[in-house]
Amino acid sequence: MLNRIWTLLAAVLIAAPAAAAEGGAECGGETACRIDGGLYHLALPDSWQGGPAVMFLHGYGSSGAKVVANSGLVAAFTRRGYAVIAPSGLPWKEGKPADWSVRDGWNTYPRNDVAFLRDVLADAASRAGVMTDRLLLSGFSRGGSMVWDVACQAPEFAAAYAPVAGGFWLPVTQDCKGPVRLLHIHGFADKVVPLEGRVIQGSEAEIVQADIWEGLQLWRRENACASNAADHEVRDGLWRKRWKCEAGGLELILHKGGHGLPKGWSTLALDWFEDLER
Fold first, then answer.
1. How many structural domains does the chain have?
2. Which of 41, 97, 135, 264 could cysteine-pair with 158, CB 3.0–4.6 Å?
3. Reported pTM
4. Do residues 193 and 125 make contact, with C-beta atoms less than 8 angstroms apart?
5. Structural domain range at position 248
6. Neighbours of 278 (CB within 10 A)
7. For 148-170, how does the pLDDT look when each residue is reduced to its tens digit (9 = 90+)?
8. What is the CATH number of the domain that holds 45?
9. Does residue 116 lie in a domain region?
10. At 209, phi and psi to the nearest 5?
11. Are 136 and 113 spatial neighbours (Cβ–Cβ below 8 Å)?
């Protein structure tokens, strides 16, 4: 009888939307989870019993709260059985918008985000049974750039990476720490983060978005991919290239739009991710 009670109690704890947060408050949905270093939001599928997750990094000036408030984005993942983890960046300087510690030559950002994201993932695993070995790290714009940086600096952090409309900034690293499985999605007509990069003149400093093609060349080297794509596909307004790689994997999807999340991108990303697991 005692063993049965403990089994039932464990099941209840796993199925809970989120365990007690710091200070005893519950978190999940609109209520942020607080850990040392910052906040994140967590959205779980119905009847959640633990499982895979998508960690999504917001764009410049946004937040994890705004990510989970995007019901369409969240539902696209949760209805396929994925938890959504939405960390929040910090202002890069007092009074400035939220950002990420993207490697771009600035030295004002107050947090090591690779370490922070590790702590977020560990906390989500403890609270809600997120499977750390079945994590897809995604992000948009500046968040997409952070995805590239995490993939480069800590390739073992996620099972795969799916950045959208964001890549390396100068100075571009010339050597990452290992191969990764990466799907990059970008708008052919993107003027905010152009495929060929651009210089941004600001009051604090001049920073430069690197050429996406140059970044993809680095990933081809890191994954030991053939120089030419092994597979090309044009369908439904999307241009896809897949490289055959000795380690990891690399795919590019271009859509005809500008700086945004293209319609159906989450389905493309999850289909790609699940194909990797088969």
1. 1
2. 135
3. 0.91
4. no
5. 28-277
6. 4
7. 999 999 999 999 999 999 999 99
8. 3.40.50.1820
9. yes
10. -75, 130
11. no
